[in-house]
Design goal:
81% of the residues lie in helices and 0% in strands. The chain is mainly alpha-helical. The protein is globular. The N and C termini lie far apart (36 Å).
């Protein structure tokens, strides 16, 4: 329950700060997508099979963020939505024991809310 509440707080906080500080939505969306993807690599440390999987995932999300920033903005909310599915995969994956307890739930909640926000703001 606590993890979900923290995820909701992030899912509300990032859009709120983006609005209050009048940040460029494409830039913040791309940075957010990139950051959340690379956080998983920090949890893996030296488990090489998992490290390769997480690095590949981070690269895919980085590319979605880059092309969302430079070409098609809707790739950003798509990437955030897909990252939520990536989190669900970690929740179901038995080898994801490297993650702190509840981290997947936190991320699913945050990614969902942030994806909805950027979808609303970046659609045209």
């Amino acid at each position: 329950m606590t993890a979900a509440l923290i995820g909701i707080a992030f899912g509300i906080g990032i859009p709120l700060l983006t609005e209050l500080l009048r940040f460029d939505k494409r830039t913040i969306g791309a940075l957010t997508l990139t950051a959340i993807a690379f956080i998983y690599i920090g949890f893996v440390t030296t488990d090489f099979p998992e490290l390769y999987i997480e690095a590949l995932g981070a690269l895919v999300f980085f590319m979605l963020a880059y092309f969302g920033l430079t070409k098609k903005p809707m790739l950003i909310p798509l990437g955030l939505f897909l990252h939520g599915l990536w989190d669900v995969g970690h929740l179901l994956w038995e080898n994801a024991s490297f993650l702190p307890e509840g981290y997947e739930i936190l991320c699913i909640a945050a990614d969902t809310l942030i994806a909805i926000y950027f979808y609303i703001k970046l659609r045209k």
